[in-house]
Specification:
The protein is an alpha+beta fold and 172 residues long. 29% of the residues lie in helices and 30% in strands. The protein has three helices and seven strands, in the order H-E-E-E-E-E-E-E-H-H. The strands form two sheets. The protein has a five-stranded antiparallel β-sheet. A two-stranded antiparallel ribbon has the order 4-5. A hairpin with a 2-residue loop joins strand 4 (87-94) and strand 5. The protein is globular, with a radius of gyration of 16 Å. The two termini are 31 Å apart. Bound molecules: ligand GNR and nickel (II) ion (NI). Nickel (II) ion (NI) is lined by residues 94-96, 136, 140.
């Protein structure tokens, strides 16, 4: 049970392609549980390991609406094996891009292959909000943020503001 610090952009770790996990062991299971603690604390509906400074292909999600019916999803080495032709637009945010939101267009549904916390191979058809979130989290594993899907004008404006906020936090 640990809430970990969340990196914010700009940060080189958030731009780095994460490494595949070779073995789903206690270290990975502890990482996933700490990521869930961090995600619920934030609060957020998804979190990727690079956001907590671990450059490995691990993501967690929970799109449950209440604290009572939590349904955590833990995925290791996720891969999209099918994506719908139909797209969907969703206003995205990111714990690593605090206070900024933008419409992002992505496939409406995706089939994702992954390893669960026991190392077993699984497949899930993600639709609706889960489709958006799983693609957002998988982007993090490739060093991609939602702002990389919007216009460079808007992206650079957001990055300038985040950098300024970081500098001011250092000075104070
Ligand atoms: O908590 C989050 N909400 C969210 C809303 C719309 C699209 C994607 C997300 S994921 C985000 C948490 C996060 O930054 N995960 O990487
Ligand atoms: Ni994010």
């Amino acid at each position: 049970m640990s809430v970990l610090p969340i990196l914010t952009a700009p940060d080189p770790i958030l731009k780095t392609k994460a490494k595949r996990v070779e073995l789903v062991d206690d270290r990975i299971r502890t990482l996933m549980n700490d990521m869930l603690d961090t995600m619920y604390d934030a609060p957020g509906i998804g979190l990727a390991a690079p956001q907590v400074a671990v450059s490995e292909r691990v993501i967690v999600m929970d799109i449950g609406r209440t604290e009572e019916d939590r349904e955590p999803l833990r995925m290791v080495n996720p891969e999209i094996v099918w994506a719908s032709d139909e797209d969907n637009t969703y206003e995205e945010g990111c714990l690593s891009v605090p206070s900024h939101y933008s419409d992002v267009v992505r496939p409406k549904s995706v089939k994702v292959h992954y390893l669960d916390e026991t190392g077993a191979a699984k497949e899930v058809l993600a639709e609706g909000l889960l489709a958006t979130v799983v693609q957002h989290e998988m982007d993090h594993l490739d060093g991609i943020l939602f702002i990389d899907h919007i216009s460079s004008l808007k992206r650079n404006m957001i990055l300038r503001k985040l950098l300024k906020a970081k500098k001011e936090a250092l000075e104070s």
